[in-house]
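Exercise 7 asks you to align residues with tokens for two separate proteins.
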Amino acid sequence: MTALLRFDAVSAGYGGVQALFEVGLEVRANETVALLGANGAGKTTTLRALSGVVDVPSGTIEFDGRRIETLRPHHRVAAGIAHVPEGRLIFGTLTVEENLLMGAHVVRGDKAEVRRVLDRAYDMFPILKERREQAGGTLSGGEQQTLAIARGLAANPKLLAIDEASFGLAPRAVDQIFETIAAIGASGDSILLVEQNVSRSLEVADRAYVLETGRVVFAGTAAEARKHPEMADFYLGSRKTRTPRKPVKGRTRRR
């Protein structure tokens, strides 16, 4: 199956400090992929490289059949990539509907399309319809995260990249967020999910990658990831080899 998104030997970093080392991964159409790893493994940097917030000095990023690593962030949004950042970052003083309209800026010239993406958001998230005239900053944490995801969907993306959707939420809100992610995936949207909650991520994902110190150390199906004997060690840092040269057994793709 042709990949919708492909990273090939992507390296990136901040201020001269390298954070990603020749990362390779792909997301196919109608697929949810979990990107896992301990804090500082490079997961957020990967999403920032995808959305254009971080420069990619080497390697290539292909999306929907074209190279995008040199495109400006707003051109990547227009190409069909929506990034839901860690910490939600909604506009607290704007209403729920105004937040959604900010997400829908890509289609703002088409009133019928704007109405369609708003209706989709309200159909998928009835609580947002109830709160549509309420300021985003007055919502609960779980509702704000739902709004952040809905704002990403309002851009009508081909790929939704979600960073730490469950961070800081109460258990009940975590359940709701993962139900939301599962529903989005079931609707046919492609998702790249960065998440610390490994077990819940693997419940909704088709495939998974694990990053360790900026390198891919595992690539395989969600089922293979659940059974992998070293999965806990990737997070606890107890493995002897900290800079592996290639992914461990279970990988599904070779460069």
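Second protein for Exercise 7:
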Amino acid sequence: MSGEGRDPQAIRKLAPGKLVIASHNEGKVREIRALLAPYGIEPVSAASLGLPEPDETGTTFVANAELKAMQAADLSGLPALADDSGLCVDALGGEPGIFSARWAGPSKDFGLAMELVEKNIADTAVDGAPAPSRDAHFVCALALAWPDGHVEWFEGRVDGILVWPPRGKNGFGYDPMFLPDGHIETFGEMDADAKHAISHRADAFRQLVAAVF
């Protein structure tokens, strides 16, 4: 949802060459590398450059993606792409949302995070009322920043329901408990190509590609 409402002529184009992926999450880096592969971009991870992880002090996915991209571009002197994404659960008022990684704790234990989501959904149940909604969606905000401070951003989304117990060992994060609408496999069961075709990250990337390449 970035370029919508903006003058396409005003969006800065990205030239082939090095691009910093401003993430220390290897799962995200791996997916972003695959999505960038056809476009003449040479991705380098923030971790490989020794760049620090900034505090994510934004109150939205877009704000957090922007601050990560801007710091990486400023410190590296290269264009930088950052992703901020998370799981939003209807029954939990949109949580964990921008705090999705924090629910996994310092050890990034997403098995624990998924258990916490499931427990919190169960805790919303009221005797005699219908079972709590299991509707959820993933959001991905991508921010592309240049060293001079210019930023473009793009936001994607995929809707689905949560299953329990989790299914599959592919993907990362909350993928094994997320069943996208219209599919019979969770993100944790899908192979990478199938997930890349429909994911929130792929949705945001389609917008980015259309705008900056």
